[in-house]
Amino acid sequence: MRLRLREMDPRDRAVASASISARLEEFLKVLQPRRALAFVPLESEPDWWLRPAIDRMQFAYPRMGRDGAAFFRIQSPAHLVPGRSGILEPPEFALMCVDVAAADLVLVPGLAFDAEGRRLGRGSGHYDAILKKTPAGCRRIGVAFDLQMVDHVPVEEHDQRVDAVLTPGGFTLSPPRR
To answer: Which one of 3, 98, 148, 168 is most buried, counting C-beta atoms within 10 A?
Structure first.
């Protein structure tokens, strides 16, 4: 999957990202989350934050520390800075910490997803740990390109599911979490 994502044509990536961003913008208008957590897209992931309305949402983004991720709300993605691993994150002076246990929406990255809400991450377990702390009513939305939807993602006991996956093709709703 990593190879397929790296080989994706930049024009196709831009068109797919714009579609995801437009669908997400419409979804957010209806949902109106108050405590939304999001990921900063890597080069191989959808640029979901392309729309002005999304930029104004003031999502909380992760900053990685020794004890895992802490989420900080910032005014704009333009305020993100390279972190220890080179991934953009909120700067040290970001003060508005958002408690994962109070989140009502989490946008979740992944390498692959399936229709059951199973997710293949990048192997660090960070997002499984984050999702495990979210409240029962929190909507967990995977964000992916169509090619990242697969028939079956193998899971282990610690793996956390998402409620839906947003792709350029639309939302794929998963069965309710238990």
So the answer is: 148
Whether 178 is covered by a domain: the verdict is no
Q: Are 149 and 126 in contact, with CB atoms under 8 Å apart? A: no
pLDDT digits (tens, 9 = 90+) for 108-135: 999 999 999 999 998 788 899 999 999 9
The C-alpha torsion from 6 through 9 and 12 to 16, rounded to 10°, is: 10
The pTM of the whole model exceeds 0.85 = yes
Q: What letter would DSSP give residue 109?
A: -
Amino acid at position 37, single letter: L
Which residues lie below 8 Å from residue 69, measured CB to CB, with a gap of 6+? 62, 63, 126, 129, 130
Domain harbouring 136, CATH code = 3.40.50.10420
The domain tally of the chain equals: 1
Burial of 25-64, coded b for 16+ CB within 10 Å and e otherwise, reads bebbeeeebebbbbbbbeebbbbbbbbeebeebebbbbbe
Q: Count how many residues are written for the chain.
A: 178
The answer to whether the beta carbons of residues 161 and 63 sit under 8 Å apart is no
